[in-house]
Amino acid sequence: MSFAELFIIAVSLAMDAFAVSVSNGLMLPKIKIKHAVIFGSFFGFFQFIMPLIGYALASRFSHYIVSFDHWIAFILLAIIGSGMIKDSFEQGEEAAAQTESKIMSFGNLTSLAVATSIDALAVGVTLALMPGTNIWFSSFVIGIVAFIISYAGVMLGKKISGVFQSYASRVGGCVLIIIGLKILIEHLFFGG
User: Fold this and answer.
1) Alpha helices in 28-91 (DSSP H)
2) Are 133 and 77 contacting, i.e. CB atoms less than 8 angstroms apart?
3) What is the pLDDT of residue 102?
4) Which among 150, 158, 148, 153 is positioned nearest to 31, based on CA atoms?
5) Domain locations in the chain?
6) In this structure, what is the dihedral angle of CA atoms 90, 94, 98, 100, given to the nearest 10 degrees?
7) Is the dihedral of CA 185, 104, 94, 156 positive or negative?
8) DSSP 190
9) CA-based diameter of the chain, in Å?
């Protein structure tokens, strides 16, 4: 596989992470560079580690993973998105502080990163079937691209948040649910 092909795969894998990062950037009351770095780090790490796991599990368990990975992504994103919509009806500065702590919590970031990187696990399985693949280099490229795209997504979300200020949490929650549905539909009907 050429570097150009690997780069295209990495960008494709990072698109869900980008959308989730934008939606969370919309909801952060006061964004700091550290927020974008933290998001990029979580998404980049999981996009890096999942192909390695997929590669390692390719010969034994790939048919089990593929049969339910889309359900895990959908359920995680639907739960998080629904919670964001519910929280959007809270008012005041206290609610904004709670929103920031929820968005930036380890559990929330991990759930979002896992849900958006399950496809990278399938890519790892595919890479295991390609002779001569350097899985460490491939995973590194995928992780770095996810970091950069997620970082940019949070920053973009904050830039456009003024347009959606009062509806940011609702929009963000809906985006997560839609991404979860997209993942589910792709896998159920199009063999994603």
Assistant:
1) 33-87
2) no
3) 81
4) 158
5) 3-189
6) 110
7) negative
8) S
9) 57
Q: Which tokens in the block code for residue 70?
A: 């889309």
| pLDDT reported for residue 141 | 96
Do 46 and 153 contact (CB within 8 A), yes or no? Answer: no
The pLDDT tens digits for 29-73 are: 777 889 899 999 999 999 999 999 988 887 566 566 667 767 777
The amino acid sitting at 140 is F
Both tokens of residue 41?
A: 């780090």
How far lies 45's CA from each of 42, 72, 114, 150, in Å? Answer: 5, 19, 10, 11
Q: How far apart are CA 192 and CA 15, in angstroms?
A: 15
**CB contact set of 180 (below 8 Å; sequence gap of 6+):** 73, 74, 75, 76, 77, 78, 81, 115
Angle at 23 between CA 20 and CA 28, to 5 degrees: 120
- Cα dihedral angle (26, 30, 34, 35), rounded to 10 degrees? -30
DSSP sequence for 100-117 = HHHHTSHHHHHHHHHHHH
138-166 pLDDT, tens digit per residue, is 999 999 999 999 999 999 887 876 655 55
Q: How many residues would you count in the chain?
A: 192
CA angle 9–13–18, rounded 5-degree value: 130
Q: Which amino acid is at 101?
A: S
